[in-house]
Amino acid sequence: MEIANKSRTRAIIAQYEFKFKKKFGQNFLTDANILRKIIQAADLNKDVAVIEVGPGIGALTEYLARAAGKVVAYEIDAALIPILEEVMAPHAHVEVIHEDILKADVKSMIETSLSTFKEIAVVANLPYYITTPILMGLIEARLPINRYVVMMQLEVARRLSAEPGTKDYNALSIAVQYYCDVNIAIHVPKDVFIPAPNVDSAVVVLTRKSEPPVAVKDEAFLMELVHACFKQRRKTVLNNLAAYFEGLTKEEITTLLLEIDIQPSIRGEALSIEAFGKIADVFYEQIKNRG
Q: Which of 25, 42, 53, 233 is close enough to 124 for a disulfide, judged by CB 3.0 to 4.6 Å?
């Protein structure tokens, strides 16, 4: 019997006397139909290697093992390692690493273990409490990962795919869309997990862009400026930038914004990535010239 089944999941939990740890945000998926959809969305074959984060007891890992050429699964909870080793024993191409993905040297792992594969995908039911740090950590590291197919809270998925002028559009939307094309592929009800989370979920497909939508002088500075413009969401770009750039007066900031046809009274939520790119470059030059 497959792991992705409520009775099998409960049996494994009982056999190993496993206790859920709230601090790790553990919710085990028990719906085989959704797992099949995830595999389809991930577009896997034996030339693709997969990095999984938070495999739990291996429900998704089992499906990944059938479809991919290799699976490297990072699990932080020591109590889950013996379970994973047993249920994954038939799959020699599955490697379980007991490590916090936020501290792992994923770049070195890819270079030593996955360099022969044509593509690399991250496929995971991400721990909801650290979805953003995991995603942004991997994306901003510029690793040779072609796509991310990840389960997350529906609310976060909507932010990732949000467009300017909508209530869900924020700094995370821009940060992710700068690097990836975003598509919400699957809506997932909360009752297909053990234990059930408090909210519904979604599987999002992030496909790495060959080039960012706008070229900027300094990407790190762009991201800092975007976060600054959303620091107080209801405040104007002028007021948020004045709070961020303590060395610049509001008059100086206004002048710089008008030079690139950005109205100082606009809010960050109304600005496109291209507009933020213009703002970043003009302020980067201003700050650099001041030394």
A: 53
Task: Work out the burial of residue 257: count CB atoms within 10 Å of its CB; fewer than 13 is exposed, 13-18 middle, 19 or more buried.
Answer: buried
Q: What is the largest CA-CA distance in the chain?
A: 68
48: β partners: 119
- Spell out the residues 6+ positions from residue 11 whose beta carbon is closer than 8 angstroms to its own: none
Query: Residue 6, Cα to own-chain centre: how many angstroms?
Result: 27
Cβ 59 vs Cβ 29: under 8 Å: yes
Query: In Å, how far are 50, 228, 246, 262 from 242, measured between CA atoms?
Result: 44, 10, 6, 15
Question: Does residue 291 carry a pLDDT above 90?
Answer: no
Residues contacting residue 243 through CB under 8 Å, at least 6 positions apart: 228, 231, 232
Residue 135 · residue 176 · CB < 8 Å? yes
CB 151 within 8 A of CB 201: yes
Decide: 203 and 41 in contact? Cβ < 8 Å.
Answer: yes
Gap between the Cα atoms of 96 and 118, Å rounded: 21
Q: What is the pLDDT of residues 218-247, one digit of tens each?
A: 999 999 999 999 999 899 999 999 999 988
Q: Are the C-beta atoms of residues 182 and 161 closer than 8 Å to each other?
A: yes
